[in-house]
Amino acid sequence: MVVSGILYGSYTSIGDWNACFAYNFLLGRFRESPDAFSSKWIGNINLNRGNIDDAIKYLSVSIKYDNTDAQTFYNLAGAYIKKKDYKKALTEIDNCLKIKTDFPNAQTLRAQLTDILSQ
Question: Domain of 45: which CATH number?
Answer without folding.
Answer: 1.25.40.10
